[in-house]
């Protein structure tokens, strides 16, 4: 029986032979049918965690949703810390997972949170999706502007515009819908700074594949 892994699907069980989910319309291709669970034997609870993520975000539990998002990425890549993730690690995660996580964030927050929201802001600041080693200075400059725009950096003194900016600590991020647009999820925050162009480029590639 094909099983829809779209985390927002309320009736994931489908009759044999179906190409699309009867409830949500997601394509029941190799990944969505449930082969993903058997193709990653060391991580059989992926479906459960995706549903926990959906529930947390739909109830406005933004910090729990953020924790689950990072946990899913780390478990899928068999890494213990965000700082240890590499481009190769992220590229091995199926597009359907990137899109599913991003959609849950975007839908639960009315398009305020999610990698798509962050990508739009990044590109509006002149950020690119691919950087080389010799353009790191440009990346660093955009990343600081990005941190300012989405609230990851703040003025050191009394919110004065002339004050130098400092990075917030994770526990001081705003886990509320009132946070600046793009404030969450935090995968790209601080230790994840080197993942920005990789995640945004991967999201672009996955979106293009989905539209084909």
Give a written overview of the molecule.
- The protein has 212 residues and is an all-alpha fold.
- The protein has a domain at 82-211: Arc Repressor Mutant, subunit A.
- Helix content is 46%, strand content 3%.
- It contains eight helices and two strands.
- It has a two-stranded antiparallel sheet with strand order 1-2.
Topology:
Layout: H1 31-39, H2 46-58, H3 62-77, H4 87-91, H5 95-108, H6 115-124, H7 136-150, E1 153-155, E2 165-167, H8 196-211
Antiparallel strand pairs: 1-2
Helix pairs in contact: 2-3, 2-5, 5-8
CATH names the topology of one domain as: Arc Repressor Mutant, subunit A
Order of helices and strands: HHHHHHHEEH
What's the shape? globular
How many strand segments?
A: 2
The description of the largest β-sheet is: 2 strands, antiparallel
Give a brief description.
The chain has eight helices and two strands.
Notable traits:
single chain, 212 residues, mainly alpha, Arc Repressor Mutant, subunit A, two-stranded antiparallel sheet
């Amino acid at each position: 029986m094909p099983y829809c892994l779209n985390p927002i699907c309320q009736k994931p069980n489908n009759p044999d032979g179906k190409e699309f989910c009867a409830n949500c319309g997601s394509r029941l291709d190799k990944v969505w049918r449930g082969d993903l669970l058997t193709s990653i034997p060391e991580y059989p609870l992926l479906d459960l965690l995706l549903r926990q993520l959906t529930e947390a975000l739909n109830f406005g539990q933004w910090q729990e949703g953020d924790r689950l998002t990072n946990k899913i990425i780390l478990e899928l890549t068999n890494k213990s810390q965000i700082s240890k993730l590499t481009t190769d690690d992220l590229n091995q995660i199926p597009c359907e997972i990137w899109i599913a996580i991003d959609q849950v964030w975007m839908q639960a927050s009315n398009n305020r949170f999610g990698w798509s929201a962050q990508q739009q802001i990044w590109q509006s600041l002149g950020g690119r999706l691919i950087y080389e080693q010799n353009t790191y200075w440009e990346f660093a400059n955009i990343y600081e502007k990005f941190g300012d725009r989405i609230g990851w950096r703040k003025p050191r003194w009394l919110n004065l515009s002339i004050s130098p900016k400092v990075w917030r600590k994770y526990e001081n991020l705003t886990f509320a819908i009132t946070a600046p647009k793009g404030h969450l999820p935090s995968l790209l925050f601080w230790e994840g700074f080197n993942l920005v162009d990789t995640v945004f480029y991967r999201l672009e590639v996955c979106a293009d594949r989905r539209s084909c």
